[in-house]
Design brief:
about 300 residues, alpha/beta, Cobalt-precorrin-4 Transmethylase, domain 1, Rossmann fold, 3 domains, five-stranded parallel β-sheet, four-stranded parallel β-sheet, 10 helices
Length: about 300
């Protein structure tokens, strides 16, 4: 039995940085350190941080006045900062922002497109904190979000019902590369001669009436590409990631696209010996919020099963 771990698997730099920020803040803080929302989408990581005295809350009301606070990696709408300011929690003092720089980049792209006359549509998961944060910079709760490439018809309907001068599509950083391309192709197939052309990420040319910007981050692309290679070469692929991790779910979906037997797990305890009967080539990949030790535990457990 051969076990191959994807070259790019586990923590990306944005997640590493967020965790480092939270740990450093907690270590230097004599009182309680609060994190609004899941810092990263991995249950094990959250439990490890709770063990270091960090308190996670899902509602800003649960954060005490003037408390030392860390914001999660996924990015926040401006309303979050205003509500925290009302509690005397502000940047430069007791608010530590762990937003991933690549998410901030998407926010900046959204704002610049909007300021240059574009109606901006978001390819993303409507309830995902990153999509919510990005939506704030566009139309807030009224931002048009498409979650699946097969929902292209809803985009066509949205365009036909509104007389937008210019329209641009952007993506949540953790969406499927193939799915984004498929969405654009599906829309273009129904555009009656018009089409969405790519607008460079630097936004130097915003003359196109219809355009899309590739805002899926490189760590996501690397993990999806590596997982695709595993799916082509292996008899079975194990995807390790948090239950709420968008990029981990996309890796699992990528395996299923290629028809390889695959399983999405959170830890080695979920591995089943029966999965590996008759299998010779085992692939292991992991989402960007999965720590190395969880990947290593899965690999070691598979070795034990094989022996």
């Amino acid at each position: 039995m051969k076990i191959t771990v994807a070259k790019h698997a586990g923590f990306c730099f944005g997640v590493k940085k967020a965790i480092e920020i939270a740990e450093e803040v907690a270590q230097n803080n004599n009182g309680s350190t609060y994190v609004y929302g899941q810092l990263v989408h991995n249950e094990k990581v959250i439990r490890d941080l709770e063990g270091k005295g960090i308190i996670f809350v899902e509602n800003i009301k649960d954060i005490p006045q003037n408390a030392v606070t860390v914001l999660r990696a996924h990015g926040e709408p401006g309303t979050t900062y205003r509500l925290l300011e009302e509690k005397s929690i502000v940047k430069g003092e007791n608010l530590n922002d762990a937003t991933c720089p690549l998410v901030t980049l998407v926010h900046n792209v959204a704002i610049k497109l909007k300021n240059n006359g574009y109606e901006v549509i978001l390819f993303g998961k409507a309830n995902h904190p990153e999509a919510i944060g990005t939506s704030y910079h566009l139309r807030g709760k009224d931002t048009f979000i498409v979650e699946d490439p097969e929902q292209y018809g809803s985009v066509i309907d949205y365009l036909s019902k509104n007389n937008f001068e210019k329209v641009a599509i952007i993506s949540q950083t953790t969406m499927s590369v193939y799915g984004y391309r498929q969405l654009i192709d599906n829309i273009n197939s129904k555009m009656n001669g018009l089409k969405f052309d790519e607008i460079p990420l630097n936004l130097r040319d915003m003359s196109k009436k219809y355009g899309f910007v590739d805002t899926i981050c490189n760590p996501t692309k690397q993990r999806q590409s590596d997982t695709e290679e595993l799916a082509k070469e292996c008899d079975i692929v194990i995807v390790v990631g948090g239950k709420n991790s968008s990029n981990s779910k996309e890796l699992y979906a990528k395996c299923r696209e290629f028809g390889v037997e695959s399983y999405f797990i959170q830890s080695y305890e979920q591995l089943d010996k029966k999965w590996f009967e008759g299998k010779e080539k085992i692939g292991v990949t992991a989402g960007a919020s999965t720590p190395d030790y969880l990947i290593n535990e899965v690999v070691e457990r598979i070795r034990e099963i094989s022996n």
